[in-house]
Amino acid sequence: MNSRSFSGVVDEALKVFFCYSRKDEKLRDELVSHLAHLIKSRYITIWYDRLIEPGLNWQNEIEDQLRTADIVLLLVSADFLASNYCYNIEMSLALDRHNRGEVCVIPVILRHCDWKYQPLSNLQALPRNGKPVICKDCLKDDSLTDVAKGIRRVVEGLHNKRQPVLPIPNENPDRVVPPSEPSWLNKITRRVKILLFRRRYRFGRQVGLTIISLLVILLIASPLISELFFFFLRPNSQPTIQVEKFISFGEKSLLDPGQVKPAKAKYDYAKESGMGEFKKEHYKKAVEIFNKIREDAKSVVERSRNDASATNTEKNAALEVLKDPEILIFGNNAQARQNHINRPESALYTIAVAAPTKKYAGSQILLGVAQAQDEVVNVPENSKLNLQVLIADDGNDKSQAENIANEIANNQKDVIAVVGHYASSSTCLALQQYSQGNLAVISPGSTMFDIRSECKDNNKVFFRTVSSTKVEAESLVNYLLTKKPNPKVVVFDNPEEKFSKSLFEQFKNALEKDNKGSVIDELSLWAQDFSLSQYSKEIGEANAVAVFPDGQTVGSNKSFSRAIDVIKATDANKLILGANSLYLQETLNKLADLQLNNRLIIAVDWHSKETGADIFAMPAYKYWYGDVNYRTAMAYEATKILVKILESETKNDRSSIKDYLSTFSSESSIVSGLRVSFDENGDRNEKNIRVLVTPIKLNNLEQNNSELKFCIVNSSNC
């Protein structure tokens, strides 16, 4: 065991992780009872999945706990071995850490099963000689006692590498109390030990005070030493983001798992199995699993059209699976890698897609990338392009986006271009990393005006398939002027966020140019004292209301929720102009009871019913068994641009791709008759107007109700 792995705080308990099948919960509880003394004495703390707090992402939480555990107990039974998640995901991650000397993995044999094969056969199991805890359907207390003694020996061995942990009296012996914060002296002594002696010696209190006194003298004598000293002692107020949690080629899912649904369980298990095979580099098997998931889901949907006995629950679960972009991307990543293995002379290209994967807007971006990748990987052998996609979850968080960009630009050297990000705030911070790495990024969602200049893109690596806030604002103003002569507008926005602020500025410029109209007030959706009742006077004086929330990037949905409240509270005779950040299913769900046809107007870059859009809308509908929106189209366009460059076979590295994009010109992949090229700012040359859409209630014949949907303004075709 690598002693460096157990270099935690001297008085911290060891973390024990239980990996088990839910069918063995009772045995897990019995084992916990046998470990009670270790727990109460604060030698160990325990963790298992039933301790996950409501509202947390269960998969991320499990992986976090596995990555920080000191001991992992594999509770082995036939049910454990049959569980794809336990065996392929949890155990695989635990054994990877075990092989690196970072954790101690102990198999605990609960029941008779065929477990003595790789990789478990190399591990010393408990109870002694690998005899199961349950024998002839009876639970043997001495077997669990033997397991507890074995675990105690391991715990004591690991604690010998640390300072002894002293039991702290507990007033309530039935309640396990977490370890208290170590004293300031312990913290400083620990830092000094790590820094000077790599934890080889033990220090008493007097020795610790002596060392601190000597260091104080040195601090006074040398400002440089002072700076270095406080660098090592500085508390980590913001823990470093573990970037590996947020990137995946196919080893783990980054999408929001959502609510567990029985009808979808078989697909979820299959996806976990496919990811397990991908992680083990069994690419051919992974391809088979991911392909079969979509084939099975398609057959359910097709059958439901002709079979009255098919339930809506089955069909909806299958449709949800068919709209999972990861299944397609992971399968094609495995196929691209297998193709490269079969034909090493064929290059393997890597692009990244960075988006908030757990949000609706991010998943829509992934759909476009997935479809474009599939169209080049699954083609005849002589023309296929081995393209793999690294998915990166930026979380719509600026700090996370910056860390992701740093990882992609500096550590993922095979990535030759990026499709992303969604929010302008995320893109702005990430862009500095991409620019330093000379890595081209094509955004399908970031619309802030003059983004290269504002975000210090010195190497001019930024391009986008969407138009800027300038085009969005002008499209809204042009429509407004056809409805209201000399309009007076009150604007609700978030001046603290880049996209919202940019859209307001461009809207104000377009409206007040040549005195066509005026913005009579700007009201902050982010204000601490925000209250609609206090703005009644301003709203009453306006004949139009503009609502420009951010893209939900500032740590909460406050701006978005307040924007919805503004729309609900606006008089029926007033026109409402909305930012494209409102173009979400969530908006339709929250406004389902309102009549907003031709009242709420949003300007977007693409709609499936606009002239020429069939070139993409129809194939996309067949891929995803439903309509897609402009974010999917823009991401598809961005990926197809990169594919066209790679197919030239002369532009296949970061620098040449960036240079090629500056002069790129081609037919659009999403609107027939339109071209794609970029100006000196990385903006689309051809996009100078947006499509105007409005929520319209349509009759849903299948579900016998009304469905709210974004349709083109004044169009009978939706």
Topology summary:
Blueprint: E1 14-19, H1 25-34, H2 36-40, E2 44-47, H3 58-68, E3 71-76, H4 78-82, H5 84-99, E4 104-109, E5 134-135, E6 138-139, H6 141-159, H7 184-197, H8 205-221, H9 223-233, E7 247-248, H10 265-279, H11 283-306, H12 312-322, H13 325-342, E8 348-355, H14 360-377, E9 386-393, H15 398-411, E10 415-420, H16 424-436, E11 441-443, H17 451-454, E12 462-464, H18 469-483, E13 488-493, H19 498-512, E14 518-524, H20 536-541, E15 544-548, H21 558-569, E16 575-578, H22 585-590, E17 600-604, H23 614-624, H24 630-647, H25 654-662, E18 665-667, E19 675-677, E20 691-700, E21 705-712
Parallel strand pairs: 1-2, 1-3, 3-4, 8-9, 8-10, 10-11, 11-12, 13-14, 13-15, 15-16, 16-17
Antiparallel strand pairs: 5-6, 7-9, 17-20, 18-19, 20-21
Helix pairs in contact: 3-5, 5-10, 7-8, 8-9, 10-11, 10-13, 11-12, 11-13, 13-14, 14-24, 15-16, 18-19
